[in-house]
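Recap quiz, item 2
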Amino acid sequence: MLELERRKVPSRTMIWLAPVLAVLATMVVGGLVFSALGYDGFAAVRAIFIDPLITLRKWQDLGLKAAPLVMIATGLAIGFRANVWNIGAEGQYVVGGLAGTGVALATWEMTGWWILPLMCIAGALAGMAWAGIPALLRTRFNVNEILSSLMLTYVAVQLLYYMVNGPWKDPDGFNFPQTRIFTDAQMLPYLSGIGYLNVPLALVISLVVWFLMARTMLGFQIRVVGAAPMAARYGGFSQRRTIWLALLAGGGLAGLAGLFEAAGPFGQMVPAFPTGYGFTAIIVAFLGRLHPLGILAAGIILAVTYVGGEASQSSLGLPSAATGVFQSMMLFFLLAADVLVGWRLRLRRRVTE
Amino acid sequence: MTEAMAVSILMTVIGAATPLLLAALGELVAEKSGVLNLGIEGMMLVGAVTGFAVTSSTGMHLLGLLAAMAAAVGASMIFGVLTISLASNQVATGLALTIFGIGLSSMIGESFVGLTIAPLGPVFPAALAEDPLLRLVFGHSILVYVSLVMTAAVAWFLTRSRGGLILRAVGENDHSAHSIGYSVTTVRYAAVAFGGAMAGLAGCYYSMVQTPMWADELTAGRGWIALALVVFSAWRPWRLLAGAYLFGAVMTFELHAKAAGLNIVPPEFLAALPYLATILVLALISSRRSVGSAAPACLGQPFRPST
Amino acid sequence: MTLITRRGLLKAGGAAAATLPFAGRAFAAEPLKVAFIYVGPVGDFGFTFAHEQGRKEAQAHFGENVVTTYVENVAEGPDAERVLKNLADDGNKLIFATSFGFMNPTVKVAKRYPDVMFEHCTGYQTAANIATYNARFYEGRAVCGTIAGHMSKTGIGGYVASFPIPEVVMGINAFTLAAQKVNPAFQTKVVWVSSWYDPAKEADAAKALFDQGADILSQHTDSPAPLQAAEQRGLMAFGQAWDMSSFAPKAHLTAIENHWGGYYIERIQAVIDGTWKTGSVWAGLKEDMVRMAPWNERIPPEVVKAAEAMRDGQADGSVKIFSGPIVDQNGTEKVPLGSALDDPTLLALDWYVAGVQS
């Protein structure tokens, strides 16, 4: 019979092979399932998973969609590695965007090189502050950060609704709930052929975090606290400090990502600002094995499915719900394939002992 | 305020509270066993669309309810296999389940958009519920009574039964439970399946009672409120009941205040209130650390037997 | 790599697109490609559903000469921008963006694709290749108001509303003014649900309004839930965007139907003929963009007559619902006798007539 047997050492091959297997399994099973449902299943797989990658003009779309996902997921993964479960990145993203918007509206009709950096700082700080609440609650009152960070997401979204429906409503906007459009001085520079500046910045951030996590004492400490809390305590690493660090890093990057979206592709604050990036980033973080470079790849894969999913609607008549089904299927397969990292499948005959 | 009006308002409160209570009870049991399932919204949607589709096709409400529970249990088992047998991360798996449920329900429901069914009516004969006050007692669909009975049943089960003791032991210290011979895996599968069944019923409350129809994302995020409620209740069934009715009352109060022309506080503040209250409660109970009131110790942690 | 500002790039992008080979009518023999983007799912049975019916009508009208496609559930913002851009890249010559929040993305993309025609629904920004279109829903509201004035026993109408944007505000006012022409004491109570779509909340809002004395309900949200609540209470309501009588056969008195099909056919034909021009269309009962669903049998004949008079009067221009005297909530006269609100004022409306409780 087929049995699972624990590996003595986690398989390094499987760490990288599992995501590939998951994507392949999604393509095969998804193709079969959608064919059974009466769609052209394999054309759907091609449209969703392959076409955006081989269509050069869609690369810019991929970059723009992947950048916030990669930034947020990179920050979250730092925490996840330390066993700190910040799942409220969506809220930190929203608050970051809001803080940047606040600066933009306060500097309305001003010009100066300092406006955009100030917006960036405000965005990152706001994200950190929002993530600091769960950190404080966890370290002071032992509150589970999964629950508190999630709850705060909904508070952040309501705060956004309040601001765009009330104090920040565009005075010339016919009462539509949205702010003024940012001026050029408040917008991220646009790089021809690449997208807004946040795309290369996301790449840089991901490399910097990789370096920090792999090569510095700080990264080592975070990994030890997550993997072996007891050992970390003997080693004199403070768990409390790690919790703060993990949440502030996650919140800061999510806040910055929010600001980049507001001052880039959105160009204003609107009620539709929370697009679920904060939640999708959790999936990206796992798909990328909590590794900055893996996250980079995972962010692009997710972006591919979004961009491909839209195209499949107009080209194949696939409902938008199909994209969600494909994405969740991919994650299910990945999580299932994960077991192969720590365990091996073995064919075993009945033994009599 | 007339008696009829007061009764009518209370009926609305009960209507708003019941699906939250149903879904949250299921999640409470799952969490007590140490499993955090963030896929409530997804399971509710799968239940809602299945209940509607089966009722619409067969005309039998009971069959719709059963099918909805079965379908939601099926969805919860995807989560169960991954998180319990394969020890995957519960947060990520739960989120994936929600995305899956939104997508799947939309695809199943495509051909049912624009149809309606007879709502699942009161379970008692109408004659019993003619008087307004009696209507408050006898004028509800079966799901209201199920939610109340299940509250009592869950409360009894968790505190008074052997099974409940084992379930809590598994949630508080899975390794100890395992070492004294209880199957952590079996207990958690059962708890997750129960959570699925209850979420399925909760979904049906929307698609078969309150707004007998199917439309995409019919539950509009109520699954997340149910999740907050579990925390708000400090994992205690009777507090959960009180919490659900409090949430229902706040939601209804907001609408009534507006209908009466009162704009006391921004609506966004009221919408954020349940979540703020939950954080506050969470801080209070977690800092007290009295036994049995804070989060189950193993919540969210995968169980990997050391043998 | 050159670092250029957003506006600079848009210009550069536009110039590049103009030189693309598929510009012009080189492929006249090929079917014209037309795309629609929707903010909601086509299964919402409300606003998006109505647009989808319009698309299907246009597709059926043109048959093989036109290929129409749609992308649903497009979030307003960068996602919309990307979808619009890709639809333009895919060779669509005419793109309908059917939600207000698509306005800025449409403006951005249209600059880069000067040879693609864009049509934006419910917005206010036009360009050489962006036309706007919208329906005078308020004319339908006035017909509903006339019926409500006759049918309501309590003299209180309920209104389940989404956001206080001009379109919703003018609907509330038109409904109330028309009802007051029948019953001067008529009041409208408004509940804002701060959402276009939240069935459970819409239903509970309807119940709250009924509990506070309303016996007839109008809605400016997208789900049939308020109608179902009215049906369960044995009261009355009006459908939104489409004939919703199947959800509430007794309560559903009529509905304001959004018929976009005729406009879509006209505009697609204009592109085929090469006569497409930008502009702002705000059409109503006259142009058949707004249509009243069949009257419920329970409406007495004399009320049907009054409703039809209101409908036909607005269609032929003899009745203007926003003609003075109109007094606002605070008692200030906003429109004197003998004049009427003009379109620009209506499109920025932010006050309520006396009798509205919001």
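The first strand of chain A starts at residue 2 and ends at 6.
The beta strands of chain A are 2-6, 190-191, 195-196, 343-347.
End of item.
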